[in-house]
Amino acid sequence: MEGHSTYQPKGKVAQWFESRLPIVGLIHSSAIAYPVPKNLNYMWTFGAILSLMLVCQIISGVVLAMHYVAYAPVAFERVEHIMRDVSYGWLIRYIHANGASMFFMAVYIHMFRGMYYGSYKAPREVLWILGVIIYLLMMATGFMGYVLPWGQMSFWGATVITNLFSAIPLVGETIVQWLWGGYSVGAPTLNRFFSLHYLLPFMIAGVVGLHIWALHHVGQNNPDGVDIKNVAKDSVPFTPYATIKDTFAMVVFLIFFSWFIFYIPNYLGHSDNYIPANPLSTPAHIVPEWYYLPFYAILRSVPDKLGGVLAMFAAIAVLAFLPWLDTSKVRSAKYRPLFRQFFWVFAAVSVGLGYLGSQPAEGGYVIASRIFTVYYFAHFLVILPLLGLFERPKPVPASIADAVLAKSKGGAVVVAGAAGPETK
Ligand code: HEM
């Protein structure tokens, strides 16, 4: 997909510069002339939305850091200072706090889109694995960010999660003390979490660069899962087509985001985090942010601590093996009738796990978590490998152009049929 740039610098200075650093040509080939499959739907705008959210989080985070102090005795009140005394501090904080949730919402849509359309299959395995690395880095960043306001949930969430490492045989306790920088979550923990919370987004930005490089090298997948064969017939140039569509989707997403910021800024947070951290008082329920809940449910579904920790990490690690666990030659769920149904069951199970993660770990909730956890793993380790062998996919169109024409012909029939009775 690379090498489609037709960019020729015009002026002498531009030519001089381009022959030394061909950056304008790079922008031209990747954001203007780059061929985009002509059948992409709005699910393909989430990469752009995610890039926007990453920039939004970095800018709002850097401004917050100008006023925040990562010292345990004052951290909580510094956040209140931002909310009350700093000009528009409340806005910047609400952008950053809700932005994290929006970022995860967008990433989950982006990942499920990839799973539905088989975007992880050859030749996009590395692109997918880079995505899984980004996701892991996002989870680490979000976790450390939540500790910074130094409220009750910050403190106890950090205590629960860091304690998980103590389940590792022999070295567990040592690792936990090393993470804490002491013998409990305290001032040194807050300081190092702040340092890493500032660092990781830039690492994410680096991996996103690789992610997009890999994407541009292999080309985009699309709803029909067939490759671009004829650039003229199957694709359109990135600008203006994708640029306009992405911009429109970003604006709609920003409206949704604004609704949270301006109307329900604390809806996704936990009220206990407005109580200063108190090591002597444990909250009744320690719940992580919503985007960790499915993994939290998996963690608690296993009665053994080490087993739970392993299951939780395995639930994320298994994603990296998806390209090889799915044995079907057909990419898109559009042509895989059975897979399509299992996909929706899997999506429902993931949401169900999220709900169970928010409930107390007792009685029926634990039993349901166990069943759902088993199903989660069975989807990857049993259903996907077998489906590829036994499923009979529908015929896949020969090209993107064929798929688009078949759809518009189908559309014409429907329109003619609908118009029929009215014209009589
Ligand atoms: C900061 C987070 C991320 C950013 C900024 C980002 C950015 C992008 C962009 C711009 C695209 C192309 C447009 C599109 O397909 O929507 C893309 C494609 C893709 N991303 Fe991401 N991504 C992120 C996270 C992830 C994660 C967590 C995964 C999976 C675990 C992932 C997997 C993919 C795949 C498989 C594609 C190719 C899709 C296709 O062509 O069908 N990405 N990403």
UniProtKB/TrEMBL annotation:
Topology versus the membrane: Multi-pass membrane protein
GO-annotated molecular function: metal ion binding; oxidoreductase activity; quinol-cytochrome-c reductase activity
Any stretches that span the bilayer, and where are they? Answer: 43-70, 91-111, 126-148, 155-176, 196-215, 247-264, 306-325, 337-355, 367-390
Annotated Cytochrome b/b6 C-terminal region profile domain ranges read 228-398
Q: Which residues bind heme b b566?
A: H110, H211
| Pfam families in the record | Cytochrom_B_C (PF00032), Cytochrome_B (PF00033)
GO terms classed as biological process: respiratory electron transport chain
What does it do? Answer: Component of the ubiquinol-cytochrome c reductase complex (complex III or cytochrome b-c1 complex), which is a respiratory chain that generates an electrochemical potential coupled to ATP synthesis.
Q: In its UniProt entry, what is this protein called?
A: Cytochrome b
Query: Whose protein is this, by species?
Result: Xanthobacter autotrophicus (strain ATCC BAA-1158 / Py2)
